[in-house]
Amino acid sequence: MISFQDSFNLSPYIAIYDLVVPKNNMLRQIKELVDFSFILEELKEKYCLDNGRNAVPPVRMFKYLLLKSIYDVSDVDVVERSKYDMSFKYFLDMAPEESVIEPSSLTKFRKLRLPDEGLFDLLIGKTVEIAIEKGIIKSKTIIVDATHTKARYNQKSPKEFLQEKSKNVRKAVYQIDESLKEKFPSKTTSNEVKDELDYCRKVISVVESEPKVSEIPAVKERLNVLKEVVEDYTEQLSYSTDPEARVGHKTVDSSFFGYKTHIAMSDERIITAAVVTTGEKSDGKHLQELIEKSMATGMEIETVIGDTAYSEKENILYTKEQNLELVSKLHPNVTHGRRTKEDEFQFNKDAGMYVCKAGQMAIRKKFDGRKGQDKNPRIKYLFDIKKCKVCPFREGCYQEGAKTKSYSVTIKSTEHQDQEAFQETEKFKTLAKTRYKIEAKNSELKHRHGYEIATSSGLFGLEIQGATTIFAVNLKRIIKLLNEKE
Fold first, then answer.
1. For a Cys-Cys bond, which of 100, 242, 351, 485 suits 252, CB 3.0-4.6 Å?
2. Total-model pTM
């Protein structure tokens, strides 16, 4: 049964919070800034209202996830810290002497209680609403970009992945006490995942039997990660990769296995919209959705800033229809030409190559001037024919017996003249220089809040992670700007 508790239990020790949690504490400021009752309204249909024992208040469970995002810690560590950190207990609406939850409850809450869709929009919309109400968002500009997140279960085999995590634990232990090498079991020579799981459990047992070592933060964090991975693989031994993750490309020579989060951000560095997709998706295809989601939060937009990925013809036409300035430099291979099968072949602006719907990138390109023909020149992108022959999407794409497979883009330099003229103006150049802000924001999400690697598998798992991470990052930014105004 759902608990509607939204305040502290009666306790003779409540006054301690006024002594140990100062006014400028970030968690106190977030608690005073945000009315979290909207979470209760959103989740109440996921609970029984009149039967069974009281569940942990959903607002408290959500706040636990928020603390995970703010401090980039595991389920076990965030619960452990809430035992003794008074700022955590204050933020969680707990009495100082109150017991904490079981870490496993957070997993159940993520899977069973959180809404199936719309969490991004709900949480981001709430922070933008606060920012507008407090007079923080004054600009009418959004900056757009995409950041990639590697899948938790990457292209390594289950055995390799488990080996990596157990190795991290051993390395951390050796830095504290190298003599423990003798206590660790012999490494398994089998290729069976079950044997590697048994080895990992023995490593965990050895470390936990040495409390002077296991309680050291550098060791404890890696140990908790290993324990979570062992638990996940024990539940589902069959997968070696995240089934929904896809290969994406950052450059011609580098790729990643995972997802993309397409982000819109105000000039004040408040994220106003986000969309999670698999890793192979093109950045530019989500511009319209990001603009519409940002407008839905109540933000007024006059200017949109992005890199060359957003200067596709459809985006130029859309922004003109909406009376928006699009500060996105034209890419001749994308915007100056006409091409077929646009849904099957998408341009990767980082690599400068097209990617087919199977996720394979062209291996080279060449200019075709078509001399002697009354036709515009074009650029041909050539694919690895060996991969095309065995591709599951080859029907209708690869012609049996063909020695090459290419995709052509016709160059029409007369198109987009207005955009070409605009990008030569001082206004365009000045606005374009502000794009670095979203790159810094992406770096913050990844390196300070753990968004570089997914904490669970699947699109929905990353949506939950992204929603709470962006919510936390936005609140931190709002508080910083409010403090600067004082």
1. 351
2. 0.71
